[in-house]
């Protein structure tokens, strides 16, 4: 649940956006800072805009000078947004546009937060096929970065996009799908906000369903021994490992007809402050820390919750962090995980945030990290008030050693040449990007380096 303070902060932020003129604002002598969720990315844009309709968005793109970057909820850790020129929020372009009951599809404004899609779809008898575990992201942002949930037979969110509308650098509208502007569509399904601004999205959904969520604490060796079987035998499966405890928990979800037992989102970071306290008190003895925490975790009961799919997927994240996540060939997960654990538990005794491991089915999207391979993702986290650089620098070579592709929105140091080796359509994507945005209006400093412009 939101704290009162968080609610007031969000309310003030919304009020500031609504107070803006509908299109570009005049430059201030002292621009207000924009920060992402963790505070790791900051910029001072001269212009902020929140268009109220499609025409205003088109007008803005025609008239604006300099770099234009779209912004969602700020849940990306990479510098995809920062610019000193113009940032554009689609927060006022939100909501359900239309529903196709025959095809079980829905047209949605791209500024819609994922957490605001479930109930309107449920009222139409539909549901998203899968969701990530944070539902604060905008739909456009989730698609741009190949955001995903977990499930060995379930693809990332971008793969459920069957059509979209792009607003190009010159303000023109371009409709894309598998039969219309096909190459642009394959590029735009994971686009990094580099082709234009996605304004509307058509999603392939399924009939509404409920999920039974079962969370069980287990020794990490037992989890690793059974991970492949659990992934294959459950609709959604992931696991977490708590460093310096020898313990983790598995999170399993399956479709059910059972009665609903809970409607509030769980906080997967619940207890993070307690883990921090235990680290501080027992930092002098990692072995005692593992004994105390591991013994306690073995007493934790299994939790079972039943809710509508859109209510059971997402979790609260009330303790902030910075994150690195790489997507590895599924068969490489266990050896990579063991090496990462070894590095963390021998070199970084201050770490208390969990690792997270998820499964994702392959797809054929040009810049999808899951392109043509069954995947396991490994995510590592650091408390946002603590430096993450040394730990991530030690872990990233392991991720890359096992052929990992980084999550587009999570911290990494990959360069253009490395990306081009991972994505066979890299050059074709760049060609389309130049055709749609010949002046590089959507390229900030980071994206210019990614695309080697």
Describe the structure in your own words.
This protein has 453 residues and is an alpha+beta fold. It has a domain of 197 residues: Vanillyl-alcohol Oxidase, Chain A, domain 3. It is built from 14 helices and 20 strands. β1 and β2 form a beta hairpin. The longest helix is centred in the first third of the chain and has 15 residues. The protein is globular. The protein starts with a helix and ends with a helix. The N terminus is likely disordered.
CATH superfamily caption of the domain at 210-406: FAD-linked oxidases, C-terminal domain
Largest beta-sheet characterization: 8 strands, antiparallel
How many whole angstroms does the radius of gyration measure? Answer: 22 Å
**Count of β-strands:** 20
What is the rounded distance between the termini? 44 Å
The CATH first-level class of the domain at 210-406 comes to Alpha Beta
- Helices and strands: which structural class? alpha+beta
The strand order across the widest sheet is: 16-13-15-14-18-19-17-20
**Which percent range describes the beta-strand content?**
15-25%
Query: Whole-number average pLDDT?
Result: 90
| Annotated CATH architecture of the domain at 210-406 | 3-Layer(aba) Sandwich
What's the total helix number?
Answer: 14
CATH topology of the domain at 210-406: Vanillyl-alcohol Oxidase, Chain A, domain 3
Report the helical percentage: 25-40%
Low-confidence spans:
1-28
Which overall shape is indicated by the principal axes computed on the Cα atoms?
globular
